[in-house]
Amino acid sequence: MLLDSIEDWEEAGPASPTDVERCHTPEYVAHIRSVDEPTWLDGDTIASETTFEAALLAAGVAIAAAEQGGLALIRPPGHHALPHAAMGFCVFNNIAIAARLMQAEHGIGRVAIVDWDVHHGNGTQAIFWDDPTVLFVSLHEWPFYPGTGGPNEQADTTINIPLSAGSGDEEYERAFEHVVEPAVRAFEPELVLVSAGFDAHRDDPLASMTLTEDGFRELARRSAALAPRYAAVLEGGYNLSTLPRLVAAALEGFG
């Protein structure tokens, strides 16, 4: 349904295990590779004999988007995936894998990751917590799943912006203007990667935010203006009837 609504798209190949192991432990990657029957990786995340292939493909499309300046339309999502474990529908941390590859193979020094999924990107935060070359900025409903990203959870290159349930276009734009944009511009990234979750929409069934199509268009526009290069990776978004319109609005904003 989502691809049917988009005229210009292309496929990409899988990431390699080496790409994935820049962000995840070899033991964890081997565990996902070994799954040969339906297995619960955590309380929300099920895996089967095709999960390793699907997760490599998702990470590979995220890499291609970062290389080409596109939006990766992928499942499974990634921003909850920890270095050693799956979490919250996420198997491999797609955006983190893309960021590491751009640094390792394309000479990118400083990367900013802006996450406007309705949930805190705890996995991305964990991967880059001590890394001065990657700025992680997350806007998310709080208190909410996964329980991290509160107002006191900050670091030199981690900025969490917890927003109250019911927040919408005005609150997100205010947060961008007063926190996100000054922080990212001060960091001077060569590349901005966006964890583009659409589950903060007012009609999404899994959260309580009130963003509109115009709100997502504006978030995308503001994100794209933060660095010379940008790309985005699909995270959440669980209303299948609204998701195509929201992705289309974001694509308009990214330009």
Would you give an account of this structure?
- With 255 residues, the protein is of the alpha/beta class.
- It has one domain (3-254): Arginase, Chain A.
- The protein has eight helices and eight strands; from the N terminus they run H-H-E-E-H-E-H-E-H-E-E-H-E-H-E-H.
- The strands form two sheets. A six-stranded parallel beta sheet has the order 3-8-7-4-5-6, sandwiched between helices. Strands 1-2 form a two-stranded antiparallel ribbon.
- Strand 7 (191-196), helix 7 (213-224) and strand 8 form a beta-alpha-beta unit.
- The longest helix has 19 residues, at 169-187.
- The two termini are 22 Å apart.
- The mean pLDDT is 98.
What are the key terms here?
Arginase, Chain A, 8 helices, 255 residues, two-stranded antiparallel sheet, globular, alpha/beta, 8 strands, six-stranded parallel sheet
Topology of this protein?
Blueprint: H1 17-20, H2 26-34, E1 39-40, E2 46-47, H3 51-68, E3 71-72, H4 94-105, E4 111-115, H5 122-128, E5 134-141, E6 158-163, H6 169-187, E7 191-196, H7 213-224, E8 229-234, H8 243-254
Parallel strand pairs: 3-8, 4-5, 4-7, 5-6, 7-8
Antiparallel strand pairs: 1-2
Helix pairs in contact: 3-4, 6-7, 7-8
